[in-house]
Amino acid sequence: MEGKAQDLGYPGAYAAWRADPQGWWEEAAGGIDWLRRWDRVFDPARGAFGQWFPGAELNVCANCLDRHVAAGRGDQAALIWDSAMTDQIEALTYARMLDRTAKLAGALAALGVGRGDRVVIYMPMVPEAAIAMLACARLGAIHSVVFGGFAAPELASRIADARPMVIVSASCGLEPGRVIAYKPLLDAALALSPHQPESCLILQRPMLRAALRPGRDHDLLEAEAAAPPHPAVAVAATDPLYILYTSGTTGRPKGVVRDGGGHAVALHRSMRMIYGLGPGDVFWTASDVGWVVGHSYIVYAPLLAGCTSVMYEGKPVGTPDAGAFWRVAARHGVRVLFPAPTAMRAIRQQDPEGRLRAGHDLSRLEALFLAGERCDPPTAIWAARLLDRPVVDHWWQTETGWPITAGFRGLGLFPPKPGSGGRPSPGYEVQALDDHGVILPPGRSGHLAVRLPLPPGCAPTLWEDEAGFRRAYLEDFPGWYRTGDAGLIDADGDVSVMGRTDDIINVAGHRLSTGAIEEVLASHPDIAECAVVGARDPIKGQIPLGVFVVKSGVDRAAAAIAAELVALVRERIGPVAAFKDARQVAKLPKTRSGKILRACIRRIADGEPPAAPPTIDDPLALEEVARALS
Ligand code: COA
Ligand code: AMP
Fold first, then answer.
1. Residues 596-619: pLDDT tens digits?
2. Helix spans in 506-577 (H)
3. pLDDT tens digits for 340-350?
4. Which atom of ligand 1 is nearest to the CA of 578?
5. I need a surface site. Which of 9, 238, 279, 478 has the fewest CB within 10 A?
6. pTM over 0.85
7. CATH class as words, domain 508-629
8. What's the gap in Å between 576 CA and the centre of ligand 1?
9. Which mutation among 126, 342, 397 tests ligand 1's pocket best, with the greatest number of atoms within 8 A of CB?
């Protein structure tokens, strides 16, 4: 966005996109180096809703690394790894990142990985996670990163679905007070998976070395050192760059696909337009590479834009204290910091006066962006006062890959109205629809939807499940993409996102399916039926809460069964689910047609009137839930 679009300001830029969407994206595509030009900017006849840049070829890794080295930025830090867990800091220059990535790509190629092959990456927050992602992109292979907080069965289901040729992992991850042995988790997942990779590359961390299985497992650093650097190959713009599994409404995660060309164009443009950053600027997204925020704004976008990206291994609090974010931001001269609201709430809870901010030179910090869940206004106000900087809540999803709504530093619309998620990014027409798909007037809450086609960077499909993509997102409101979020658009055009319309909950910025947790509870031999809802939590936003009914004849102590359910969720889904509370009731509240009244249970958990519908079967069941949750 050097040039034309930037000069337009937000209203002009948004109007320019509306007047000529293809012209807008064609201009944005000028920020990317292509190996072959597109046949058409957009072909509406391809895929579920059309495809961006068909016929074009590029290499995303070369756009992230090689071109910056070629342009003389080789000595600039590309990635600064700051580990509060190990007290280590490592700055990797663009030249060093390129060197390591090309060699790891060589190691993967030596194991047979090529264009279109999948590579699962199950890693803690170490530079090798980003290097492995980029190495896949260099080869035209498709990576699928799995968050480290998932348990073996979740990893196994992703391995079974993606069918990777190679898995890249580490001997261990580090959580406060404990070392998480990753390799046994990987081995357990492979024991469960019907698909077996041909090889595993394991990063041996010194805190805990893993036993390697001869023939299958290789030491990642040794393989990297021994491999010749691999050149960047030409990849079709419409080919998948990665698959990222996210929670759907069933226990089976959805494999969100990202195509390479549109993704590079949209992310590159977003860096200047939304965050106001360009080459040499330091950007810190305090998320995990296992989530979309980490894919887009720890790895791809900052590197596409020639920025320096900070990768942090640690927590906002407790590693060692609630000043960790200010320490890291000051140390590396961060210009824009992008954490989840939950992290701000955790810091605020432990250091409400912001005493630990003192002594850290945050003069280079210009703005705080928040996403992953709605930011409650008190937290946003607290952060803005503490930092004396604009705070921007912006809204997006795994499926979109970049913000649907935001404040736009590069377009002079900054900061957005407090309490809102900002205005639609050029590329998105957002409307609130009623249940029949009719556009609601300003101020009325409904289903937030994006008019098709989705812009570049958004998921074109689900992995090997185009029908599932259409069903999940396109069928409810023909001509629209259903976001699954409810919200409203006010008279000024500012969008407020209020919550999900399905059974997805947001726990500390992590997306979880209550349906998936219910499936685990229902598999316990004593459970007749159950419901899981997202109850309000002052720090994590929401936490899952289970209510269960036991089978007739079961007369064990409720506390013992609840403890087993908690352990079962941890074992099957993982600690990230933060499932710690299950309560027994004699009966679940239902409608006369047998539908469990989960919304009523959630309202009771949140201390609100249950607002039972007239179709309730037995109102006493609600009283029973209220008693159990009191
Ligand atoms: N590997 C293994 N275990 C992990 C893990 C990983 N990568 N990440 C988290 N866990 C575990 C934690 O150790 C914890 O286990 P416990 O139940 O034994 O304590 C559990 O999963 C929940 O972790 P977490 O969500 O980090 O909660 P917490 O209570 O330890 O910390 C916060 C609370 C608010 C500090 C923390 O949730 C946080 O930093 N949130 C921000 C998350 C974020 O950036 N989200 C944005 C995604 S876009
Ligand atoms: P994920 O796909 O994990 O990034 O989660 C996406 C979901 O998180 C969205 O559908 C929203 O429900 C929620 N979300 C993300 N950002 C925001 C935000 N700024 N405001 C409100 N909800 C958000």
1. 999 999 999 999 999 988 999 999
2. 514-522, 558-572
3. 999 999 999 99
4. 22
5. 478
6. yes
7. alpha beta
8. 6
9. 342
